[in-house]
Model the fold of this input.
Amino acid sequence: MESLNTLIVQVINSRTLITATLSQLRSKGEVTYTKVQVKPVELKGKLHYQFAYYTGPKVEHRNIPAEEAAEEMMSLLRATFRQALLCTVEADYQVLISKKYKVSILTKSASKQEAPDLAHNRKKQYVLDEGEPVPFLVELGIMNSEGKVLAKKYDKFRQINRFLEMVEDVLADLPAGRPLTIVDFGCGKSYLTFALYHYLAVRERRELNIVGLDLKADVIEHCSQLAAKLGYSQLRFLVGDIADYNELDQVDMVVTLHACDTATDAALEKAVRWGASVILSVPCCQHELFNQIENDVLSPLLSHGILKERFSALATDAIRAKLLDLMGYRSQLLEFIDMEHTPKNILIRAVKSTGGDNAAKWREYCAFRDFLGAKPYLERVCADLLPVETTAQS
Ligand SMILES: C[S@@+](CC[C@H](N)C(=O)[O-])C[C@H]1O[C@@H](n2cnc3c(N)ncnc32)[C@H](O)[C@@H]1O
Done:
């Protein structure tokens, strides 16, 4: 084991280690982890090594200071694993340890050409890691079977991860101790629906009932087949129009990603009537207000089509957030993904709350709506849930 210790100390001290994978259990009797992956990360300006301890589909991460990393790897190789692959800038080392601790080290040319980019690692601490094949991402053609994200699918991968970060942030707002019911309205090819299922059922081990709904029968048929292939038994896909969807009485979370124009509002109405604990909605192509807005003061802005379009979209989301607040939610508008990747980058996150001074909120809302001359869909369809004056003013 001395030669192995020397090698590990050397690749750590010279900062040439890109990844290490420790595998093949010494004894299956006391299975702790089935595999451990190691990679360098920079934390607060200091080199650390991130150890990912896998037990079946579950993974636990620990960031260990560089000076302790060699000892942690060696203690895992003494007690738990008989195989290691160390990929460094200079070479790959295939390590085999016999039952009697005889070590053989095979040196091959480097399979990973790049030096470890620590800043890069630090920036991309995704919920779903690249390098670890995730079945639904492989099936959807985002990763290959080795877990490598396809170059042209990187934006989608980033988007899915960003969405899962948002879900992670609201986990505490969802009911605990019972199955969760979730609806993805306008699910399309259902990247998010599958991601939600993977994250909640496989990683968080929650009991689920997830429904993806869309108008397109062929897309829904394809998603249903994929769910069956992946064994995602608590995930169903249905063909239908959001506004007509009446199957469920109680839903805990509603999500929409780029549901066109007022389809987002139809989804928000459903969510509010169900009293969903959480709403995550990224709107898209808001056309409704574009044809309604009239305001002489704003004429320098509204006379330019492109500005009017963007302003209408922003005003629509401001109206949605205020109406959700008025109907018992605490809403926030967050950047979903950098503008660089998509202009459809605002996410409405609304969490059920105990409410507040609705009279003041309502006055503020009405003043804004009337200033713009807007007659928003969401206000019309939720008139019975809003302060009484609504019916008189809308
Ligand atoms: C831009 S795609 C987004 C699909 C998916 N959420 C995604 O981000 O990949 C919008 C989807 O919403 C669906 N859609 C639009 N209006 C709808 C409605 N009223 N009811 C159900 N689905 C609707 C469309 O069929 C389309 O698949």
